[in-house]
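Q: What changes when iron/sulfur cluster is included in the input?
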Amino acid sequence: MNTTTNLPDAKRVGMVSLGCPKALVDSERILTRLRADGYAMSPDYAGADIVLVNTCGFLDSAKEESLAAIGEAISENGRVIVTGCMGEEADAIRAAHPQVLAVTGAHQYEQVVEAMHEHAPPSQGPFVDLIPQPDVKLTPRHYSYLKISEGCNHSCSFCIIPDLRGKLASRRIDAVLREAEKLVAAGTKELLVISQDTSAYGVDTRHEERMWKGNSVRAHMTDLARELGGLRTSEGAAPWLRLHYVYPYPHVDQVIPLMAEGLLTPYLDIPFQHAAPSVLKRMKRPANEAKVLARLKKWRDICPDIAIRSSFVVGFPGETEDDFAYLIEWLEEAHLDRVGAFRFEPVEGAAANALPDPVPEEVKEERYARLMEVTERISAAKLAAKVGRTLPVIIDEVGEPDEDGDIGATGRSQADAPEIDGAVYLRDVPATLATGDIVNVTIEDADAHDLYGLISG
Ligand code: SF4
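A: The predicted holo structure follows.
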């Protein structure tokens, strides 16, 4: 039987995907579309008829990385189409790399596909359109990102995402749930809900209702969480479900009981960015840090195992020593489980660049080091408290036997999202252990970021 991928003259496309998990989801969508059009995938430059580079344009450092990746693809292959966030700066890309065949922006799936058709027309096999193809996935099969919306209605002064990606545009709830169901049926054990602002899901569609399995469901974070919590794998288990980029709007309180019941993974990724009211004001973010501390406490009362992850910016223009001390004190109290920190970096086109009182680089470095010291100490204490407990762990990778025949594996606890948080390192695992298995692990040791343990039972 003919299939798209074994048509003798199928055009092959290579993909270089840079940037955040959201960009990875875009890459998957583009490849799925291209495969439906009769293209095959190439794992390397040499075998590709054309290379697609999905770029990130958020920070200047990401733009440099994107330009370098485009340069590499040109020198290795020569036929390159650029897409993604940095595609909004086509002039800069063409100035650096005049050879690129086409440049399209973020989420311009149609344009990317059109450019592919123009520069590497697909082979027309007689059955191509008739063959159902599963979606292409770039993330490992056992976890998948589920994108619920594009764009953002906020206007944080350090961010240009609303300019790059536009206002919030939520997907239909039934489409999101159908995709989630398909992913779980295809073997996904962990779903990661992503967007720019997950709490705002459906605001733009006035929380439009759709029928799903005989019930009316709203495009709203709480309905979404409840419905996703009802999904089951083919073995009848509840998949892990993580909510990312959640803003602490009041309705977030409603999903904490779902975590306590085990329907949602007890994990919230909330990008607080800072705590000092004056800095938050200049960042144009809501300043409710005191209430947030009270809510964190309430959430932990309801769901003691909840892991809170956040990210912070140090050295924002006008950040005084007092502002920074406020942030440190807030962190000491908030006791967050996972913290990512960034030194403020001006992003071309961001309103924050015009703010007075830039913080000198050496002060930024010093504050960054102090913040890391505090958050690592908190993380180490929180992880040390897990020693002796038995925790569910999802397996990401199983190693080869060493000279004594012992096999190690790497996994993650429910407090660890892939690619951004810590790991659980396992020793002496059975040879039958496979990626995506969820096993109970007795924690034997911990450091500032990771746990170490042994499968129990
Ligand atoms: S940082 Fe602010 S403006 Fe940028 S995507 Fe997030 S919420 Fe929207």
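Observations recorded in class: The first strand starts at residue 12 and ends at 17.
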